[in-house]
Specification:
single chain, alpha+beta, Glutamine Phosphoribosylpyrophosphate, subunit 1, domain 1, six-stranded antiparallel sheet, 17 strands, 45% helix, globular
Length: 648
């Protein structure tokens, strides 16, 4: 895993200045590639490419980047891994290409030279962000992998284009305008992340997953990027061509595909391991790894003092059954809280998914022993593992059948319930969401009331996944707009609500929250994390599995579970979903209170002019009085304020 950066300018820049600017950009992301660095400059075009390398494949100098093609026409910087590079190397070798080393970068470069950018991109299987310079046509191509595993940011203003793996690289580049995107801030407060193609800055965009951006004239506005792969088209095609055959045949076929996918993710010339929480996804990845390894796989988990948030015992049981070389780190509350001040540096765009804290700790733990780790991320979005696909989908369907006036009346009634009225809360939960009631998640009642007051399934789902129900309630100037999530939820196809929910998450929450989080925390530790469940072949196959098979008897990821049960007894892995979580409400009321109070001091908020001091204070007072509902929204405010302090 590595980091890239570069500049393309309509203005003449001296070679030494261009090199110095590019080096400054790559120095800002040294953590992504501490092993090697390089810079390429095409002075006549005012173009530079910079690179930081974390050596994974071909540790020799022949893997150095930027790398030029055999003809000298193309130059590449490439962040990621191409899992089918050996097959492509064989095909290209038969066409006459000769290779100097063993890196996947050289193979990708030859593929672009032979097949062209669009066709070669379609043939690459892996995770990648690529910048490719064609010195003959003076064309810069920026390419991002299909599901958005690897990031790529692009800045454009007044004839200056810069790009990089993280925003902090662009900060260090030429003429960076830090004007904020108010619409992006509204989206962030709602979803806890900034959805693509927006970024927190007005003049920066995220390149969309599965897209190619082709730039020939930096003096002109950025052209529209072009897709070479579309998750939406894949979903519609898969739903129209469902798998036929018996369930045992489907499970056999899925096991073979999962095994092949995991095997392809094991290529490495450096030590490799895996994260293990003891849940379905990570246990499946580890089980398939161990079945294909001659020695115990190195696995890692983090234990916490607060048992309600601790899955380490489950991970140890799975590791013991599979026979892995397991490492468990017990983190004290103080060690966990010590990560909080680091978050604005790790996330140079506001990000408020609280699992960022344990995710960073497990990456730091794994990096002590390995350079590459496999993760189970993506299994929930691809195979329907979230409670919102089971409990939430049922609540939406039930609510949609209730007349709007009755829904609003019930929502108003729910809003009047005090924390002591447990019997009436329990009755409503048992009607709309019995699983929530059984698990004692009574704070979700406010969420139920919020989405019942909305007018459509789209608005209901948006409410269900929102921390702040309306960013206009907290922002001084809210300019939020409809985005990809609303487009998917309001579309006629897919026709079933559950399929639209999963597609919306694959296009938004997966790349912009989950995968962005994994990339930043792992790269901060100079660790490469691979996500087999986000392999595009597996995603394409999963869309051919009917939702009624993915989710059976109220239980998500049913076919993946059947594969896992062939390796691990079900009693070791069947339990309510927990995930990486922390008691953020207790922290904000306790050890983080002084810090939080400073973040939202009324005079500070008034001076900054972005957030409404009265609305923030009301929400904060409610949290201090013991209301758990709203803790994520307040955490988003704290992360925004900390980010502003660090970067503005």
């Amino acid at each position: 895993m590595c980091g890239l950066a570069g500049i393309l300018s309509a203005k003449a820049i001296e070679v030494k200045e261009l090199e110095a600017l590019t080096r400054r950009m790559t120095d800002a992301i040294t953590h992504r590639g501490p092993d090697d660095s390089g810079i390429f400059v095409d002075h006549g075009a005012n173009l530079s490419l910079g690179f930081r390398r974390l050596s994974i494949l071909d540790l020799s100098p022949s893997g150095h980047q930027p790398m030029r093609s055999q003809s000298g026409r193309l130059t590449i910087v490439f962040n990621g891994e191409i899992y089918n590079y050996r097959e492509l190397r064989r095909d290209l070798g038969q066409l006459g290409f000769r290779f100097r080393g063993q890196s996947d970068t050289e193979v990708a470069l030859a593929a672009f030279e032979h097949w062209g950018v669009a066709t070669a991109s379609q043939r690459l299987s892996g995770m990648f962000a690529i910048a490719l310079w064609d010195s003959e046509s003076r064309t810069l191509s920026l390419i991002r992998d299909r599901l958005g595993i690897k990031p790529l940011f692009v800045y454009a203003k007044d004839g200056t284009i810069s790009f990089g793996s993280e925003l902090k690289a662009l900060f260090a580049g030429p003429d960076f305008d830090r004007s904020l995107n108010l619409a992006a801030i509204g989206d962030y407060l709602r979803y806890l992340y900034v959805p693509a193609p927006k970024t927190i800055f007005r003049h920066v965009k995220k390149l969309a997953p599965g897209h190619i951006l082709t730039i020939t004239d930096p003096a002109q506005p950025l052209p529209a990027s072009v897709p070479y792969w579309s998750a939406r088209e894949v979903a519609l095609r898969g739903l129209q061509q469902p798998i036929v055959g018996s369930l045992p045949e489907l499970i056999d076929e899925l096991e073979l595909l999962l095994a092949d996918t995991v095997s392809s993710h094991l290529q490495s010339d450096v030590p490799l391991g895996a994260f293990l929480s003891g849940g379905i996804d990570s246990s499946t990845v580890v089980a398939l790894m161990q079945a294909r390894s001659m020695r115990p796989v190195k696995t890692f988990s983090v234990a916490f003092e607060k048992q309600d948030y601790n899955e380490a015992h489950h991970a140890a049981l799975v590791a013991g059954h599979l026979g892995t070389d397991h490492t468990e780190l017990l983190c004290t509350d103080q060690e966990v809280l010590s990560v909080v001040p680091k978050l604005p540096e790790l996330f140079d765009e506001p990000h408020a998914d609280t699992s960022q804290i344990p995710a960073y700790l497990i990456c730091a733990l794994a990096r002590r022993s390995v350079t590459v780790a496999l993760s189970g991320d993506g299994g929930d979005e691809v195979f329907g593992g979230y409670n919102r696909y089971t409990v939430g989908e049922r609540m939406l369907r039930t609510s949609a059948r209730v007349p709007r006036s009755a829904r609003r009346a019930l929502a108003s009634y729910i809003g009047t319930l005090s924390t002591g009225e447990g019997s009436r809360r329990g009755l409503i939960e048992s009607i709309l969401a019995p699983q929530l009631a059984r698990r004692g998640v009574s704070e979700r009642l406010q969420k139920i009331g919020s989405f019942m007051s909305t007018d459509s399934e789209s608005a209901m789902y948006r409410s269900l996944v929102s921390a702040w129900q309306s960013s206009s309630s907290i922002m001084v100037d809210d300019r939020s707009t409809h985005g990809i999530l609303e487009d998917v939820m309001e579309a006629r196809e897919p026709s079933r609500l559950i399929d639209r929910m999963m597609l919306a998450d694959q296009l938004t929450y997966l790349p912009d929250d989950q995968l962005a989080k994994v990339d930043r925390v792992s790269m901060a530790a100079s660790l490469e994390v691979r996500v087999p469940f986000v392999d595009h072949r597996l995603v394409e196959y999963a869309w051919r599995i009917p939702a009624s098979v993915k989710i059976r008897a109220g239980q998500g990821k049913w076919p993946v579970r059947q594969v896992l049960y062939r390796y691990v007894p079900r009693q070791l892995v069947d339990r309510p979903k927990m995930g990486l979580s922390v008691p953020i409400d207790e922290w904000l009321r306790g050890p983080l209170r002084d810090w939080a109070e400073a973040c939202i001091a009324p005079d500070r908020l008034a001076r900054e002019g972005l957030l409404n001091p009265t609305a923030v204070r009301q929400a904060w007072d409610a949290l201090l009085k013991g209301r758990r509902h709203g803790a994520l929204g307040m955490w988003a405010v704290m992360m925004l304020q900390s980010w502003r302090e660090r970067w503005l």
